[in-house]
């Protein structure tokens, strides 16, 4: 019956399902939202259909439930019975649990109290531990603030790093932790600003101090150079003493000088070290490196700007001292500041500076026309070069600029010397210099080794040279010193040959040329020309002295200077100039002699009577020659005196012969010849006496002064001879008339007429002798005509 009960109700169910919409049933079965269906029913105006369908669906489900219950009602009854049994057991278990709970509560009440106390203690311990950690961090923060306030930034940075690495992660208070995490970057930024501020102050300070640093360093180089010069001076003195057999203590002295080059160059780099270290700790190492380099490069560019408002002569020392100080500081930073600067960066800075300095020097040297200015700048630049080289910088380009200006400097120096020498010669009266005091003697004679003996003469002392000689020597000596000063400390190590070349140029092209110009173009007299010749001879002797001076200043051994062919070319030039001076002097002497010999025209060539006294011109010639020879003896060498005497007397003899040959002389008598003979005799007497007294005989010359008058003497002797026709006898002519020329004799004899015929002349005394002489003269004339 139970099994068939469901089948009897099935048609009813199906009827019910027929009234339910399949779509709606499916949606309800799937648990879908019926909202859209409800909305659609209301929107379409048919909600009643939907309600009806829902009611049918509900009835369908109630019928299914009812059927299900009828089908399993026996199982359900059994389950209810079992459930009632379970409830009874549950009540019993609940009662047991309640009893156990009461018992446990009674036993555990004390333990719970203890546990609560323990938990409370643990809580206190945790709070205390967290408080201690917080307090420690707070203490570190306080210490950091104190370091920052005191300017101890490195310690502050280390504490910040410690907090950041070891403490901040373990800080229990989140709010406190957030505050610390927020403040650490702020503090680091503050420290960076403070350190940068200090570093910027240092940049300003070090730039202002760089000039003083450079000046001190250059002063050290100057002092070292001075010590070196003193050492060389002592060595030269010792060598000179050893040459003369005098050995002084200084020859074997040992100078030990311990000098700390950096002892005076004290400047504070602490701000740099601190800024570098702190930036490294802050992690801004590369940033600070770049910041340092850019600022120092900017300062260098400012230092390299030279002011046009001030003359370079006045500004060059501060300019170069500033640059020297800059690179001394950079060298110290490179050596002591770790990796703050690299060698390549320093090299870049140096290349920038050396390029600007060489450009400035080349420009200023091209515009400077004063040797003293060039020398001052050059000396300071060489000190700058030595200073920077000692600190590891390559200063060769600076020296190259100086070397390239070497010719210009010496050309300017020679030009200045030329003007000075020209002024000296123009103001010189070319008379022997009179020295009245011993200090004048030392200053003008001994200092240039112009003395003729080692004995100090009595004063006043008349020197064999004029005032222009010692003045010129002072100019030459100053030239050598200036040349050595310019070439020293920077140019080639052995610059003696360079000094020698320029010294030769000065002596030849300036001094010698000026003297020759005075000789050839100057309006000078005989005494002045003689003095110039004497001056040239003295200057020739000074060549060796000047060369030795140059060698000493160049630290060249004198034995090398005194080797053959090692002297100045100027010495040979002065020797040649002496010959030119003597030639010019002889022209002046001949001109003076011609002035006196012009009185030959005043002679009565057709005089009837002769006189034993010489003619006026002869006396004047003797006075002139005596003064000439005596003056020459005082200032010229015996060889020069000999040349002058020979030349003067030869010119007189030639002039007497020329007087006989003159076209203006048509006729002369025996009396005139006798007068000329007297003149020649006076001149011969003077020539013989002056040759003996002047010491010229010691020269052992083949020709004496008297021999210079041989042509005029032989001509007079021939004209006064009783047998002039003997001239045609070769033996007699060679012995007595060897200096006479056939043509000249023929010309003179044609003009020779014996004393004029007088009334009753045939009765006069000596008529026979005169006739014989006349016949002999006529014979000589005929034979000379036949010979010609």
TrEMBL record:
InterPro entries: EXOC6/Sec15 (IPR007225), EXOC6/Sec15_C (IPR046361), EXOC6/Sec15_C_dom1 (IPR042045), EXOC6_Sec15_N (IPR048359), EXOC6PINT-1/Sec15/Tip20_C_dom2 (IPR042044). Its main location: cytoplasm. Keywords: Coiled coil, Cytoplasm, Exocytosis, Transport. It is found in: Cytoplasm, Cytosol. Residues 53-218 form the Exocyst complex component EXOC6/Sec15 N-terminal domain. Pfam families: EXOC6_Sec15_N (PF20651), Sec15_C (PF04091). The keyword Ribonucleoprotein does not apply. One of its GO terms (cellular component) is cytosol. Belongs to the SEC15 family. This is Exocyst complex component. It comes from Zingiber officinale (Ginger). The lineage of its organism: Eukaryota, Viridiplantae, Streptophyta, Embryophyta, Tracheophyta.
């Amino acid at each position: 019956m139970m099994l068939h009960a469901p089948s009897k109700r099935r048609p009813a169910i199906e009827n019910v399902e027929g009234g339910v919409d399949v779509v709606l049933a499916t949606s309800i079965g799937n648990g879908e939202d019926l909202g859209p269906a409800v909305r659609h029913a209301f929107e379409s105006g048919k909600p009643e259909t939907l309600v009806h369908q829902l009611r049918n669906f509900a009835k369908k489900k109630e019928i299914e439930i009812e059927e299900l219950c009828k089908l399993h009602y026996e199982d359900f009854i059994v389950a209810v019975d079992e459930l009632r049994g379970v409830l009874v057991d549950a009540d019993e278990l609940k009662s047991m649990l309640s009893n156990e709970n009461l018992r446990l509560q009674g036993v555990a009440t004390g333990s719970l109290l203890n546990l609560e106390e323990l938990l409370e203690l643990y809580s206190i311990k945790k709070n205390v531990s967290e408080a201690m950690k917080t307090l420690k961090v707070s203490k570190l923060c306080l210490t950091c603030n104190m370091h920052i306030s005191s300017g101890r930034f490195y310690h502050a940075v280390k504490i910040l790093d410690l907090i950041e690495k070891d403490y901040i992660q373990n800080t229990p208070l989140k709010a406190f932790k957030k505050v610390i995490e927020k403040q650490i970057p702020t503090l680091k930024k503050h420290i960076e600003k403070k350190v940068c501020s200090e570093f910027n102050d240092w940049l300003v300070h070090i730039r202002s101090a760089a000039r003083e640093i450079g000046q001190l360093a250059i002063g050290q180089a100057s002092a070292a150079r001075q010590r070196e010069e003193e050492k060389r001076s002592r060595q030269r003195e010792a060598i000179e003493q050893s040459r003369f057999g005098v050995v002084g203590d200084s020859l074997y002295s040992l100078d030990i000088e311990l000098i700390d080059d950096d002892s005076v160059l004290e400047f504070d780099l602490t701000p740099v070290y601190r800024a570098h270290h702190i930036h490294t700790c802050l992690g801004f190492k590369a940033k600070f490196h770049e910041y340092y380099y850019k600022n120092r490069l900017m300062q260098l560019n400012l230092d390299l700007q030279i002011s046009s408002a001030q003359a370079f002569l006045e500004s060059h020392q501060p300019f170069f001292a500033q640059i020297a100080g800059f690179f001394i500081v950079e060298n110290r930073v490179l050596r002591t500041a770790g990796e703050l600067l690299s060698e390549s960066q320093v090299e870049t800075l140096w290349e920038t500076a050396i390029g600007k300095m060489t450009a400035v020097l080349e420009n200023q040297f091209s515009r400077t026309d004063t040797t003293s200015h060039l020398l001052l700048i050059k000396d300071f630049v060489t000190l700058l070069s030595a200073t920077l080289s000692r600190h590891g910088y390559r200063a060769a380009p600076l020296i190259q600029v100086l070397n390239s200006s070497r010719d210009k400097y010496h050309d300017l120096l020679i030009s200045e010397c030329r003007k000075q020498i020209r002024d000296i010669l123009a103001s010189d009266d070319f008379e022997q210099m009179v020295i009245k005091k011993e200090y004048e003697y030392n200053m003008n004679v001994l200092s240039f080794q112009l003395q003729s003996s080692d004995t100090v003469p009595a004063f006043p002392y008349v020197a064999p040279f004029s005032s222009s000689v010692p003045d010129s020597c002072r100019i030459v000596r100053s030239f050598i010193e200036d040349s050595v000063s310019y070439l020293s400390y920077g140019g080639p190590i052995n610059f003696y040959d360079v000094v020698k070349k320029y010294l030769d140029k000065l002596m030849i092209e300036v001094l010698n040329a000026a003297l020759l110009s005075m000789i050839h173009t100057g309006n000078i007299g005989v005494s002045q020309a003689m003095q110039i010749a004497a001056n040239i001879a003295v200057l020739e002797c000074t060549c060796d002295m000047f060369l030795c001076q140059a060698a000493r200043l160049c630290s060249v051994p004198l034995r090398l200077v005194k080797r053959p062919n090692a002297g100045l070319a100027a010495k040979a030039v002065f020797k040649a100039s002496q010959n030119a001076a003597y030639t010019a002097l002889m022209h002046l002497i001949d001109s003076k002699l011609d002035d006196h010999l012009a009185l030959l025209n005043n002679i009565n060539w057709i005089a009837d009577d002769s006189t034993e006294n010489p003619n006026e011109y002869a006396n004047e010639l003797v006075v002139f020659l005596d003064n000439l020879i005596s003056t020459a003896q005082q200032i010229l060498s015996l060889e020069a005196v000999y040349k002058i005497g020979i030349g003067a007397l030869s010119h007189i003899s030639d002039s007497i012969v020329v007087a006989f040959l003159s076209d203006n002389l048509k006729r002369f008598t025996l009396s005139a010849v006798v007068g000329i003979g007297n003149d020649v005799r006076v001149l011969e007497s003077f020539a013989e006496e002056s040759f003996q007294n002047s010491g010229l005989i010691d020269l052992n010359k083949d020709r004496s002064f008297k021999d210079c008058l041989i042509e005029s003497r032989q001509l007079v002797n021939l004209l006064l001879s009783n047998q002039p026709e003997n001239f045609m006898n070769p033996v007699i002519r060679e012995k007595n008339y060897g200096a006479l020329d056939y043509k000249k004799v023929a010309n003179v004899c044609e003009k020779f007429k014996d004393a004029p015929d007088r009334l009753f002349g045939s009765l006069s005394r000596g008529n026979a002798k005169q006739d014989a002489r006349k016949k002999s003269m006529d014979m000589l004339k005929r034979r000379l005509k036949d010979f010609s």
